[in-house]
Request: fold
Amino acid sequence: MKEKYSQFIIVGGGIAGSIAAYACSRLKKNVVWFCPKNENLEGAIQIPPNSIRFLKNLGCFDNLKKFLNPISSIRVRDQNFKQDLSSINVDQQYFTIERRNLLISINEQIKSNANISIINEKIISFTSNKKECKCISASGDEYSSEFILGADGPSGIFRNNLVFKESEKSKKKYIFRSVIKRNKHNSILFQSSINLWLDDGWHIVYYPFSGENYLNLILVGKNSLKKLEKSNDYELELLKGINWKSINQDDIIEEIIFNYERVFLIGDAAHPIQPHLAQGAAQTFNDGSVLFDNLLSNGDDFFNLNRYANKRTKELNRVRNLSFMAGKSYSSKGIMSKIRNKLILRSEYYLDDFLKELWK
Ligand SMILES: Cc1cc2nc3c(=O)[nH]c(=O)nc-3n(C[C@H](O)[C@H](O)[C@H](O)COP(=O)(O)OP(=O)(O)OC[C@H]3O[C@@H](n4cnc5c(N)ncnc54)[C@H](O)[C@@H]3O)c2cc1C
Reply:
């Protein structure tokens, strides 16, 4: 059994782990990073204006530019109307990026840093007390540190240990995802817009990425697969028969938790958010940006990390409330869904203002 000591242990090789490792590498912290090989890097994420701000603050935006797919508008649509319910111009302020390229670009900037030791395995347990932390790796080695940054996602070890067991479990969610390639029959779908189709108790979002050659799709709602198959809208008909993968979200507790003794969480481990406002990755970048700013200040890292946790808890509560409102509105059924769509159609500034509030 080997033993190793570092200032920080980072656990998780997704967006949150990579952002944490990037922030620490810029701050020249001494880090052991548990970064198991990522099995599923399919699909893309949206980069709204607030993500751009956070990535610029972190210093990694310029290196991502070559992978960005520009988006010119956000279109909110209804199968029964030919006119968009709302169309928001986001030209030059909004992008999409393939998940794989985002991670490759960030990780390339970290690998050259001698202060970061990368271990391509999982941890199987951890301990934390007022003085230090320890992690045991899958191969049985022991690593101790001053702090742990837990970035192992919504079903990881840290969240499972830290979230109170009596918390109410969230209701089962029906979320499906897919990626399709452009061909001569479906090219109408590959315009530079985020398309949000609202319907009766279900909705679908799709947007292009990687030079508008691929489309990332998310379908939400209990009977959404059946309802999509029945659609006779010209564009939605092009999505019939594609392969959907179910995203299992039924065992995720949505409570926000950022710290416990010397463990500090980042990304979905701290705050699993429903995908209604495309803020999962954006809030992870925000975590990274606030973490970076706080660790940059002189003084005690424990004090700085607690400041990070307090600031992010407040901000996340605001975003989670907005996301909850959006989720309620998207899932309206029957007459309520018709009223919702009419209201959006008539209130020109409503969505614009809502998004400005979200991204501020
Ligand atoms: C289909 C889908 C579409 C999405 N679209 C968007 C979008 O458009 N915009 C947006 O902002 N967000 C989106 N999100 C959310 C966004 O991807 C996440 O919020 C963001 O990636 C943060 O992820 P994370 O790194 O915290 O967690 P994860 O991506 O879950 O990564 C966790 C990592 O921890 C590792 N790990 C787990 N256990 C251990 C262990 N014991 N030891 C070591 N490592 C471990 C895993 O291997 C994994 O690499 C989407 C999510 C999904 C699923």
Summary: Residues 11-17, 34, 36, 38, 43, 45-46, 122-123, 151-153, 156-157, 177, 218, 247, 267-269, 275, 278-282, 284 surround flavin-adenine dinucleotide (CB under 6 Å). The first helix runs from residue 15 to 26. DSSP finds eleven helices and 18 strands in the chain.
